[in-house]
Amino acid sequence: MISSFCKSATLARRMSTSAKPKTAIVMLNMGGPETTDQVGGYLLRIMTDRDMIQLPVQSRLGPWIAKRRTEEVQKKYSEIGGGSPILKWTNTQGELLTKKLDQLSPETAPHKHYVAFRYVPPFTADTFSQLEKDGVERAIIFSQYPQYSCATTGSSLNAIADFYRDRSVPKNIEFSMIERWATHPLLAEVFAERIREKLAKFEETVRDDVLILFTAHSLPLKAVSRGDTYPHEVAATVALTMSKLQVPNPHRLVWQSKVGPLPWLQPYTDDAIKAYSKQGKKHLILVPIAFVNEHIETLHELDIEYCDELAKEAGVIQIERASAPNDHPTFISALADIVSSHMKSGPRVSKQFLNRCPHCVSKRCEMSKKFFAQLVGSEIDKPFLTA
Length: 387
Ligand code: FES
Hints:
The protein is built from 15 helices and eight strands. The chain is an alpha/beta fold. The protein folds into two domains: 4-32 and 84-180 and 346-375, 3-Layer(aba) Sandwich (Rossmann fold), CATH 3.40.50; 185-321, Rossmann fold, CATH 3.40.50. Helix 6 (153-163) crosses helix 15 (363-376) and helix 11 (269-278) runs parallel beside helix 12 (296-314). Mean pLDDT is 91; it is low at 1-17 and 383-387. FE2/S2 (inorganic) cluster binds next to loops.
């Protein structure tokens, strides 16, 4: 006998392909160029985004750096197949997530995912125009960076505030936001599973001594000193992953992808690989702990530059790279649990998000926090209509 839950889930699934979406899940991320032709524009937008990077005379220096780096970055994208797979992965994750939500939460179905990228299409402004046109009743702004940084999620959220600066916010859409989820247990579980897959590749005689090197995109020390929460949120994901793993292996958190001459968070991933090899630690797993899907930093920097080239030069015996969560079923369950719990009990906007860094002097941040506080207004603690 089919339960009423199954019947309504089936109905919701059918509706999701035929009816207009009721609930939008807006997946925020930086995006990556799909073709080498997009590389110039992508770099230009990054280098002129003061939320992401702060340069002296940025309006002139940013475009100059972007232009200078275009050819070299295009070459890297060519070496990983001609473009970034980030849109493909985000769409796959979004489709699997919304299918699951239709089952878990038929009362808010049909759900539809929307992608809002910061530096390549689909851009934030186009996506928000589209969900208004689609007539959704509710929009959940869902950062795809598990660990919050003012440079990444903060920048994407500022772009939403920019979009609504000169236009009125639609009154018929109920907005809310999930801006961080670094310590969700299923996120840690999927990282643990990805590490187990790679530990199994080592001989039993060395398996327990393999060094687990968690690696995350570095951040300028200036941002750390301002009070950006990213370093401790990344560390929290690492600690939770290790507690799920239950293995005796040593581990460290290191930082990759530094740009420019200013000091960033260290130790850097490449230096750490070399230094550990010198110390006699020659069996390693690299775990990209702040990326939920493959992109240039995993496929080129980690796989080609570090695992292939650098590890050989440094005399490493065996190095493996844990896959990003991608479409792992545990990861899709994590996304679905995060969104469905949010839809039931919020908060619509967290007090943690509304709190600025202690040394933040950015007018954009100030305006953006005010915008999101107003977006949900006095309803921050009010239960959702559809809960
Ligand atoms: Fe963190 Fe402005 S820099 S809130």
